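Field notebook, page 406. I keep forgetting to write these up properly, so this time I am using the form the group agreed on. The chain and the ligand, FE3-S4 cluster, are recorded exactly as supplied. Prediction of the bound pose follows.
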Amino acid sequence: MQLTDVEKRMRDGEQGEPVRMAMEILIALGEIYEAERLISVRSAHLAGLSLKSHGIAGTEWAEDLAKQGAKVCIPTTMNVVGVDRSRDLKLPREWEKNQLRIETAYESMGCFGTSTCVPYYCGFVPRFREHIAWAESSAVIFSNSVLGARDNREGGPSALAAGLTGRTPLHGLHLDENRRGDVLFRVAAPLSGIADYGALGSYVGRMIGTRVPVFEGIKGPSIEELVYLGSALASSGGVALFHAAGVTPEAPTLESAFGGKRYDIVEVTARELEEGRQKLTSGKERKVDYVAIGCPHCSLNQIKEISILLGGRKVKEETALWIHTNVAIKHLAKQLGYVKVIEDAGGIVTQDFCTILGNPEALGFKTLATNSPKMAFYAPGSNGLDVWYGSVEQCIDSAVSGYWKS
Ligand code: F3S
């Protein structure tokens, strides 16, 4: 791989050990993917910051880097962590202590403790065609597809290496030729709400793996619906980029989305949507003891909607209602009175934290209801929870009644 003189000096340790180590990671990756050179990136987003993914060894590694004076040189945001810094969720103390060590280590490297998978909701919005190095599959697919930025699915170490050097290897989705569609999905089924978009992503993600789907027939989606479509594609499959004709910036037309490539066509009717929904449902007992919403983290509008849906009703005593978002959105939601409505009803609005990367199962929850396709996909394996998947209305009703109604 060709390196500039500056990059060679970084590789040789002129800027210190953390930068040398970061260059070693980037060069190794570049060689694996046959990148011809490194390119500059404007921002990085670190994931894998929960104790569940970092472990104690990873925590010590991060602390060691911080002690060696590692400092990021581009805006570098942090993904969700496993503890809510604003409140006591009654999680095991040892867990909380070690989780805070991780956050402290990265913040002392100059990373922004945004602790969210939706950095684009709090001011970190890449421009069209801008090269970035973000980890967190749902943020990657959103920035690639909806914003038209250029990003590969980075891992935690490669995103940190990019943050420390401002560089990433030129390969994959940084290149025009890899951004064209592979399969056309003609959506005939009407889509309404996040759970429908999640069901679509669940169906298509399983079928397409890591290829690029192009949708036709998606009309006037909200930003949140696109966020949840992307998160489902990225979790049920390994998709990092999708196009929606007439909706996303690289697909003003079907022709531009495929760029002259030949493609297969798949029809999506109500039957396929139902199949996607069923794959996210593993509930057996109708009794629900945990309702969680916000994977990816909720927008302000989602929190407002939940406060309206509660409509003065109370959450059932034996059922927990947890709404996940970040500190920026929560602050606004608090100022506008939505948090008070939810918490007066018996729910809570968490920040920094989420079900999959935290460990709410430590509190004994067994059956989850959610409208979040990524949470529904991972919760059985990562948290040992049975899952009911459906609309936000169904989720709020089940929080109030303690039972899931199909
Ligand atoms: Fe975000 Fe956690 Fe889901 S990081 S996408 S809320 S698993």
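OBSERVATIONS:
- The chain has a mean pLDDT of 97.
- Residues 79-80, 117, 138, 231, 295-297, 324, 354, 356-357, 374-375 surround FE3-S4 cluster (CB under 6 Å).
FOLLOW-UP: compare against the apo run.
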